[in-house]
Every structure is written in C-alpha cells, then in structure tokens.
Amino acid sequence: MQNFNYRNPTHIVFGQDRIEELATLIPANARVLITYGGGSVVRFGTLDKVKAALGDRTVFEFGGIEANPKFDTLMQAVSVARDNQVDFLLAVGGGSVMDGTKFISLAIQYDQDEANLLKYGFTPVPVESDKVIPLGVIATLPATGSEMNAFAVVSYQGGKFPVNHPAIYPTFAFLDPKLTFSLPSIQVANGVVDAFVHVLEQYATYPVDARVQDRMAEGIMRTLIEIGPITVAEPTNYEARANLMWSATSALNGMIGVGVPFDWTTHMIGHELTALFNIDHAQTLAAVLPSVWRVLTPQKHAKLLQYAERVWDITEGSDDERVEQAIAKTEAFFQQVGLKTCLRDHGIEKSQLDDVIKALEAHGMTALSETGKVDLAISRQILEMAW
Ligand code: NZQ
Ligand code: ZN
Fold first, then answer.
1. Is the ipTM, as predicted for this complex, more than 0.90?
2. Quick check: CB of 150 below 6 Å from ligand 1?
3. ∠ CA(221), CA(226), CA(229), 5° rounding?
4. What are residue 175's DSSP bridge partners?
5. In this predicted model, what pLDDT tens digit does every residue of 75-121 receive, in sequence order?
6. How far, in whole angstroms, is CA 124 from its chain's centroid?
7. Which domains does the chain have, with CATH numbers?
8. The ligand 1 atom nearest the CA atom of 191
9. Which residues does UniProt assign to the signal peptide (predicted)?
10. pLDDT tens-digit series, residues 17-64
11. Considering every ligand atom, which ligand is closest to the CA of 96?
12. How far is the centre of ligand 2, averaged over its atoms, from the C-alpha of 267 (Å)?
C-alpha cells in the first residue's frame, strides 16, 4: 500500500425529509446565496423547502447553472455574491450545481483573473483557505460524488477543467434519496455508470496489496450491479435509490482511493468528448472505458482478473478469456441500464476523432493512466476502438 493522508470534513445528513435540519448547520446571521440549475428544484418544490428551512436568514438566489457549468455563468453568480456580501453558499442540485458552487466559493475573494483558477488541474489552487467562502450542498442527483469531495469541473473555452482545493469540501451535504425520485431515467442511468467508473478508475490499475480499499471498491460495484437496473426501472423504490446514493458518494469521497494508484484516462478522454460533442458526462465514460481496458490489458491484467472473479464471479476459462468476459459483462451492464457503448451511436463521425486528439494535446493530456504511458497515439487507438 502506498503512503497517504486522509481527511474528509464533510458532514453527511443522510435520509428522507430532513431539510429542516439545515437551520442547525448554517450560522443564524449568515448571508446565504442559494445556487441551482435549470429549474428542476423549482418545479419539484425543493427550493421552497430549502428557503423555508433557512427561516429569516438573509437569502439571495442564483439559478441557471447549466449542465457542465460554464465559467461565464459562474462569474455572474460571483458578481451577485460580491454585490451582496454573501458569506455562505448553498448548492441545490446535481454535480454541475455543486461543482459550479465550489468554483464560485473560490472565485469570490480571488483578486486576480478568475480564469487562472482553471490552470492547476488536480493540484490544489494557490488560494488561502480563509479566502474561500464555505458551502453546503443539497444533492438532487446521485452520480459525481461532488457532495463529499474537494473537486469541481468547469467548462471554459471548449475544454473542461478540474479544480481542486481542500477548502471546497462542502461543510455539509444533505443526501435525501426522495429528492432524486423526479430524475428522468437517463440521468439515473448516468449516475449508476458514473459511480461505477469512478470506482474502477481507482481500482483497475496494478495491485498494491490494499485489501480494505479493494474490497470496499468491489462492494460498491456489486451493489451498483444489484441495484442499478432496479433503481432505473423503479424511480420511487426508496431502498434501491438510497443504495445508489450512498454508492455514488462512497465512490468518490476519497476513501477507496487512499494508498492506491489511479487511472483517470477514461475521464480525461470523456471530458473532451463532452466539451466537443455535448454528450452527457457518464455516457462518454460508458463508451470509452471498455476500450481503455482492451488497449491497456497488459498493464492492468492482474487487477482485471481480480475484478472478473470478485465482482462478476467469473472462474472459468484462461486468464485472458476471463478478462475479456469481465470487459464484456461491464459493457453489457452499461447497456442494461440504458447507456450506449459506442461513440458512433452518439452520431460522431470517425474523422471527428482527430478533433478529440487535438483537444487532448491542447489540454496537456499526453501522458495518461497509472503508468503515464498513454500518449496521443494510444489515446487514438482507444478512441478508434471505442468508435
Ligand atoms: O438543471 P436542472 O434543471 O436542475 O436539471 C438537471 C440537469 O438537467 C437534472 N436534475 C438534477 N437533479 C434533478 C434533475 N432533474 C429532475 N429531478 C432532479 N432531482 O439533471 C440534469 C443533469 O444534472 P448535472 O448536475 O449536470 O448532472 P451530474 O450530477 O451528472 O453532474 C455532471 C457534472 O459533474 C462533473 C461532470 O464533469 C459534469 O460537469 N463531475 C464532477 C466530479 C466531481 N466534482 O468530483 C466528478 C465527475 O467525474 C464529473 O466529472
Ligand atoms: Zn465522473
């Protein structure tokens, strides 16, 4: 196992009908900016419940944060927050609203060009923690894990840029499965696949004898395989949705990722596909991940074999056959919940793969995977296989 530090300060409030407890978690004299997306929280009544729970605090609102939140939109919210001396942010929505709000929290007191905040990738941005406005979250979409991590992804000038800072962990996150019952089934399927791929990108690398992390990862994946199809088909099945919600949070709150290598190749290629072709985040992952594995089988062989046996109960055939069966079962699982696994099914022409390669190059994505050996030529191979 590799050395690690682990600290996660987010207070989770899990369960149904607990929004009134907001009052105990936000200072009584706070000046709160509620942020939300394109209107689902207005239509389904969540915003009203949140405002009621905030009582007589001074509250401002900023709606209209789009999926894959854009820098320019977020800067409008920054202006609202600055004009009104906001000192607490409350994100009500999915990963895009949570991520956007994290960016806003960093930008409000930042005294340089705010686009600089997008330059640092997975390295924490150089901002003093006491200059970051605290934020809380009411999650309405189980997928990204943003509710309990210190990352955000912001769209800017044709790219998607990760942002990281220890002070953007939400101070609290309300996870009420009932608030997600209104999701369209495709968004639920997106959530199942996003969470599954988050687990795999911290698991399918090479063995470091991290037994707790491996078995937790396998437990989350087996849970998603069991409840994924149920929660897509039965939107108001509380127990299935509760298990999806905690799986998605557990997949990317850092716990299974301590002391192990990562491979974010699928996400980095996927981000370019979203930015170029406007394909939902998780749908890019469903198309790219199987090809990442087929191309990188030699470097991932031992963990893929472990995955085949412990997650899919595959015990027959040669080692290579077991690995291929596990990849095929993973693809079938993505399709079973309703996602496409080929890029051409998203209407992408083969010639457009050149644009993806150019974007990877422009964004410095030229040494991906746990080995750093995935250069543009290997990314092209992955994309051609995923097409
Ligand atoms: O905008 P509204 O009207 O709210 O509608 C949203 C949006 O259209 C809708 N929705 C959300 N909750 C709903 C609902 N509709 C009905 N009922 C509800 N309860 O769902 C649509 C998609 O929302 P979005 O927030 O974009 O989806 P998701 O949670 O999948 O977030 C995707 C974003 O997260 C980033 C992605 O790159 C993408 O920008 N990620 C963030 C990560 C992180 N912070 O750690 C990691 C992930 O890998 C990912 O990259
Ligand atoms: Zn993701």
1. yes
2. no
3. 110
4. 14, 139
5. 999 999 999 999 999 999 999 999 999 999 999 999 999 999 999 99
6. 17
7. 11-179 (3.40.50.1970), 185-386 (1.20.1090.10)
8. 30
9. none
10. 999 999 999 999 999 999 999 999 999 999 999 999 999 999 999 999
11. 1
12. 6
**Ranges in the chain, pLDDT < 50:** none
pTM assigned to the model:
0.98
* Residue from 8, 19, 36, 40 to probe ligand 1 pocket by mutation (most atoms less than 8 Å from CB): 40
Q: Tokens representing 381?
A: 């191979």
Q: Is 94 in the pocket of ligand 1 (CB under 6 A)?
A: yes
Report every protein residue that has its C-beta within 5 angstroms of ion ligand 2. Answer: 194
**How many Å separate Cα 161 from the centre of its chain?**
13
What's the gap in Å between 144 CA and the centre of ligand 2?
5
Strands 159-164 and 135-139: unpaired
